[in-house]
Amino acid sequence: MSYKKIEPTGSAFQYQLLIKNILTNPLRTSPDQLIVYQDKVRITYREFGKRIHRLANMLCNSGVKPGDTVAIMDYDSHRYLECFFAVPMLGAVLHTINVKLSPEQILFTMGHAEDDVLLIHSDFTPLLTHIKGRIDGIRQYILLNDSDTLPETQLDFTGEYEAMLAASSDRFDFPDFDENTIATTFYTTGTTGQPKGVYFSHRQLVLHTLSVMSAFNIRQGQGSFHNRDVYMPITPMFHVHAWGLPYIATLMGVKQVYPGRYIPDHLLELIDREKVTFSHCVATLLHMLLKSPKAQTMDLSKWKVVVGGGPLSKALCLMALSKGIDVFGGYGLSETCPVLSLAQLKPGMEQWSLEQQVEIRCKTGIAIPFVELEIVDEHMQAVPHDGKTSGEIVVRAPWLTQGYLKDAKSSEKLWAGGYLHTNDRAYIDEQAYLKITDRTKDVIKIGGEWVSSLELEDMLTNHHAVSEAAVIGTPDDKWGERPLALIVLKSGQQLTEKDILHHMKDYMDKGQIGKQVLLIQARFVDAIEKTSVGKVNKIALRLKYIG
After folding, report:
1. Inside any domain, residue 255
2. Last residue within a domain, chosen from 157, 177, 201
3. How many domains does the chain have?
4. Which residue from 204, 301, 382, 459 could staple onto 324, CB 3.0 to 4.6 Å apart?
C-alpha cells in the first residue's frame, strides 16, 4: 500500500515546533501583562521578552554553544522562567537541578548531565561548598541573588545575573533548528540508587503544552485554565518543568506569579494580594496551606488547584471544597513530561452534591488528548474498563521521554512491549475515569489477596482526628504481609490502635473492604517522611519501620 505524503519543496517554510514559538503569541497579544516575583519584581511580557534576549547574549558571551548544558539552582522565580526559554532557544540543554537532593546526589546529576555552566542562587551555595573540588565539568558559575549582599563562598563567580543581563544586548537572533533537539533534562528523585536522568525535546514540550492547554479548556467552567486566570505554581520549577504549566501560562499570556520559597503564609499572602486563581501542588502542601490560620480568614472561592504527585484524599478534597476551592486530581510522571490525565467533572456533575463530586475529583482522571493509556495484566493484555479490574498503567504519547539518560538497560525496561510502563496499578471505569489503586511495589498482599495501601490511607484520613496517614506492608509469617498504618494526629487529638481498628471495621461492615483490614497495625508518629518533591517516601518508611 502506498501512502500519499507532502514532500518538502525548496520554497515552502519547514515549520519546526520550537520553544521560541511559544513566545510569539503573548508578545503580540499581551505585551503589558505582568510577571511577578514575590514582592521584589514586576515586569511586563514585553520586558520579559527583552530579558530572554539579554540572557541569550549573556550566555553566548560566556561561551555557551548549541549542545552545551546550562544548569540552574534557584527558587521559583522570573529568572527561572527566563531560563525555561532562553537556554533551549539557543540550542543548549537546560538542566533543572533538584535543590532538595543531597550534595552527593547533586554532584552526581551535575556530572552525569555534563553541566557546563551553573546559575546558582546565593542560598544554595553552601550545598556545593564541600563538593566544589569534585565538580569537574563546570566552566562558569553565575550568581543569582535577591539582595545586595554577596554570599560567603569559595565559588568563583563569572558575575551576578542582573548585572550581566544589564550589560548584554536585548536583541538576539534565535536560530531555527531541528525540533527533535533536546531542550531540557532533569533527574528523578532517586529513592532507590542514584537519580535517573530524563530528557525532552522542543517538539515534545510544545506538543505537551498544546495538549494540556486544550485539555484544560475542553470543558467550560470547572477545572478550566484560561487567559483571565492568574497563575502561580506551587510545584518546584525543577520538578518536570513545574508540570509544564509555565509554558502553558506563557503561551496564553496570563499574569504569572512566582513565589520563591514555599512558606505557607507567604504563599497565601501572594494568592490574596495578586488575586491568584490557578495553581498546582502536591496534597501535602495543600493540606499545610488549608491548616494555616491565615487561610481561615481568606476568600479562596476563586482558586482552582490541581493536585498531583500522589493521591488526593477525600478528606482533603472535602476540606478544600468547603472553602470554595475548585480542587481536582491530575496524574503524570517525571518520565511523561508529566501530564497524562485530569479529573475534571463532566457536564451535569457540577450539580451533584459535594460528596458525589469528591468521588470524581479524587480519581486520577480522564486521559488528555493524544494520550493512549491502557490498563494491562502481567501478559500486557488489556483488562476490562469496568471500574473493578485493575492492572498496570501503560501509556503512549508524543511527549514521553525516550529513555533514561546514559542508561540503556533501564530505558529498555521502561519501554518494554512498546509502551511506557508507569509501575502504577489502576482501573478505568465505564465513564473513562482512571483511578490509581497503588504503586505496583506498594500493594500489600495479605493471605494471597491484594490490598491497596492508598485505599487504606484514604479511609484512615477520613477519621476526624487523623491529619496524615501512610500504610506499608510488614512481613508476617502467617499472612505474608500485614498493613502498618503510620498516623499523624491533629493537634490536641488522641487515639489508640483500638480506635483505629474500630474506625476501619466500619468500612468492612459497609462492604467497602474485606476482613483483611482487621489485621491493620497502627503506630502514631510526629511526621511522615517525604521525598524531595513532597510525596510520601515509602522506601524510607520501610527502611525506618521494617529495616
Report:
1. no
2. 201
3. 2
4. 301
| C-alpha–C-alpha distance, residues 259 and 303, integer Å | 16
Chain segment 365-406, per-residue pLDDT in tens: 999 999 999 999 999 999 999 999 999 999 999 999 999 999
* 392 lies in some domain: no
**Grid cell listed for 301:** 472561592
User: Is 529 one of the annotated active-site residues of the chain?
Assistant: no
User: 3-class DSSP state for residue 305?
Assistant: strand
Q: Which of 179, 274, 335, 455 is catalytic?
A: 335
> Annotated catalytic residue: which of 355, 389, 413, 450?
450
H or E, element range at 480: strand 480-489
Catalytic: which of 188, 189, 277, 336?
188
Q: Pick from 209, 199, 274: which is nearest to 246 by CA?
A: 209
Of 488, 452, 451, 443, nearest to 469 (Cα)?
488
| 314 is a catalytic site residue | no
**Is 378 annotated as catalytic?**
no
Residue 282: CB partners within 8 Å, gap ≥ 6? Answer: 235, 307, 308, 309, 310, 533, 534, 535
186-237: pLDDT as tens digits: 998 754 568 899 999 999 999 999 999 999 998 878 999 999 999 999 999 9
Question: What CATH code is carried by the domain that includes residue 525?
Answer: 3.30.300.30
User: Residue 361 in contact with residue 368, Cβ under 8 Å?
Assistant: no
pTM of the model: 0.86
Asked if 219 contacts 345 with a C-beta cutoff of 8 angstroms, the reply is yes
Q: Is the residue at 502 inside a domain? A: yes
Alpha helices in 62-182 (DSSP H): 78-89, 103-112, 125-129, 161-166
* Rg of the chain (C-alpha set): 24
The residue range of the domain holding 456 is 447-545
**Of residues 209, 175, 243, the one with CA closest to residue 22:** 209
Catalytic, out of 65, 406, 445, 544: 445
Residue where a domain stops, chosen among 157, 172, 201: 201
Strand runs labelled E in 416-478: 420-428, 434-439, 444-446, 449-451, 466-476
Q: Does 468 participate in catalysis according to the annotation? A: no
What's the CATH number where 29 sits?
3.40.50.12780
Q: Domain for residue 437, yes or no?
A: no
